[in-house]
Design a protein that fits this description.
Elements (H helix, E strand, L loop, with lengths): L14 E6 L3 H12 L4 E7 L2 H11 L3 E4 L8 H11 L4 E6 L3 H11 L3 E4 L4 H12 L7 H12 L15 H11 L4 H8 L3 H14 L5 H13 L4
Parallel strand pairs: 1-2, 1-3, 3-4, 4-5
């Protein structure tokens, strides 16, 4: 098979890609899609943040594809760590989470693209090549959402919207909505249970919720309908 032409004159003949996802079947499916391309190669696979950072340090990938939900951490933290560890690495988030809620956050964290796991292989490859060429990849849905926010900056944000939560507060809020306890959240995010309680108090205050029960109810309702 004839090798594909590099994306630009200074590009390498083979782009190394690291896959980070806690589901082996997802990693295997992605690997098959990528390995069909003559100028793309999977240089490693990881299921969590620590393993991903070790592999990234040793393999120096040009691109990392990661999920937001990992075994013992959150993808946003991994993105920030990877950017600090290797400033020139490109990152794409491939996730089932609602892109209108998370795409802007992952770009702010340092990623260069966001794509849904529901997309067909052709779209995933399009996102990979788009980011490797130095551009940011948005789906039409995410791009329209961000554009609408920019076009109407004077429009007041809905009071007590989850948009006002910090990245870490949002992670804790999502995990509460999935039914996890403070102890489970602490383990998942690698923080103390007391720190989770601090975040919970801040979330209640920002969302104007009066009790832990109200927070839990709202988090569960939100997880089923993120447009709330």
């Amino acid at each position: 098979m004839k090798a594909a032409r590099p994306l630009h004159p200074s590009a390498p003949d083979i782009f190394r890609i690291l896959i980070v996802d806690d589901h082996p079947l997802v990693r295997e499916s992605l690997k098959k899609i990528i390995q069909r391309e003559p100028d793309l190669a999977v240089c490693g696979e990881a299921a969590d943040r620590d393993e991903a950072l070790v592999l990234a340090a040793s393999t120096k990938p040009h691109l990392v594809i990661c999920d937001l939900t990992l075994k013992s951490s959150h993808g946003l933290e991994l993105i920030k760590d990877l950017c600090h560890q290797q400033s020139d690495v490109q990152i794409i988030v491939l996730s089932m989470h609602d892109e209108t809620l998370h795409a802007e956050r992952v770009i702010r964290a340092g990623a260069r693209g966001y794509i849904s796991k529901q997309e067909v292989p052709k779209k995933i490859l399009q996102a990979i090549r788009h980011v490797l060429s130095g551009q940011i990849y948005w789906s039409e849905k995410a791009a329209a959402h961000v554009a609408s926010k920019i076009a109407r900056p004077s429009r007041p944000a809905r009071k007590f919207s989850v948009d006002i939560l910090s990245d870490r507060e949002m992670q804790v809020f999502e995990l509460f909505g999935s039914g996890q306890s403070s102890r489970q959240i602490a383990l998942a995010l690698g923080i103390d249970a007391s720190t989770v309680e601090t975040y919970r108090a801040r979330i209640k205050e920002k969302l104007n919720l009066k009790s832990a029960v109200e927070l839990l109810q709202y988090a569960i309702c939100w997880s089923n309908n993120p447009k709330l």
